[in-house]
Design goal:
about 290 residues; alpha+beta; Beta-Lactamase; 2 domains; 8 helices
Length: about 290
């Protein structure tokens, strides 16, 4: 398997099979993945001469992480922003940069990876490779088969929080992984100071009209929502609220479940909305 034939899932799954074999043979904890140990030896897995020589925190304002090489390209270096306080964000960033090394290192000599909010300013090509590195990191840190085994019929922020701990990632990363695989109509909203920073919907939710166009739009948090209530710092199980609180075209009798938690640094709000299976929130068509 060469770099030209590797896709994010293929590359991550190959490494996961090796990690599964090693952890079983030596009775080691399978999760969370030790990215630093893996990255320093990954060139041997693929038979590549250029290697990752070092992983370290660095003063790189404006960037989550970087992958840079020396001249000539014999050694690569993974850097991650030393201001990041969450171990989960650090691990995901390291895995993201590892993804660049495996998938993209023949395309460029360096990769400077911005925060999620700055992705809009990238070229289409750069957005594509950043998305591929994120996909690789998700598959590596949270394999689908294992992730599904952690789920139950009733998913809430408690359960997803346990997944985050298992895989050593942020709660946001665990929720996004769940949204990829779930048949539940669910929407994740990240907000700050009363406005949405960004939002992401599961496919069933998106197909029912439950999504928010946050790109280059300023969307306020609904005043009657749990997210807007500063006196409630967290609600992990969820409370039922009128669907029209968030979706003005919802049927009058429709209710949704809203969950909320403040981030570790108390600078933004994580909101998870669960919609009824049979309900849509598209505006009525006019003839």
């Amino acid at each position: 398997m060469t770099a030209d034939t590797l896709t994010p899932p293929k590359a991550a799954n190959r490494l996961n099979r090796i990690l599964e074999t090693v952890s079983s043979a030596h009775e080691l904890n399978r999760f969370p993945v030790n990215i630093e140990e893996l990255a320093l030896g990954v060139n041997g897995v693929f038979g590549w001469k250029d290697k990752i020589a070092e992983i370290q925190a660095a003063d790189i304002p404006g960037f989550e992480g970087c992958l840079v090489s020396n001249d000539p390209k014999t050694n690569w270096f993974i850097l991650y922003n030393d201001s990041m306080k969450s171990p989960g964000r650090v691990r995901f960033t390291q895995a993201h940069e590892l993804g660049h090394y495996i998938l993209h290192r023949f395309q460029k000599d360096s990769f400077e990876c911005p925060t999620a909010g700055d992705m809009y300013n990238l070229s289409t090509e750069d957005k594509d490779i950043e998305s591929e590195a994120d996909e690789f990191a998700s598959y590596l840190l949270m394999p689908f088969d294992d992730f599904r085994r952690q789920l139950s019929d009733c998913v809430d922020l408690d359960l997803l929080g346990r997944c985050a701990i298992r895989y050593g990632v942020s709660l946001t990363a665990a929720i996004l992984r769940w949204l990829e695989i779930t048949e539940v109509k669910a929407v994740l909203i990240i907000s700050r100071s009363g406005f949405m920073k960004w939002a992401w919907s599961s496919k069933p939710a998106f197909n029912s009209g439950a999504f928010f166009r946050t790109k280059q739009n300023t969307i306020p948090i609904p005043p009657n929502s749990l997210a807007a209530n500063d006196s409630i710092r967290q609600e992990r199980k969820g409370v039922s609220i009128p669907g029209r609180t968030w979706f003005r075209h919802a049927e009058e009798a429709m209710t949704i479940k809203e969950m909320k938690i403040l981030s570790d640094n108390f600078d933004y709000v994580i909101t998870l909305l669960i919609l009824p299976t049979v309900s849509d929130v598209w505006p009525e068509r006019t003839l």
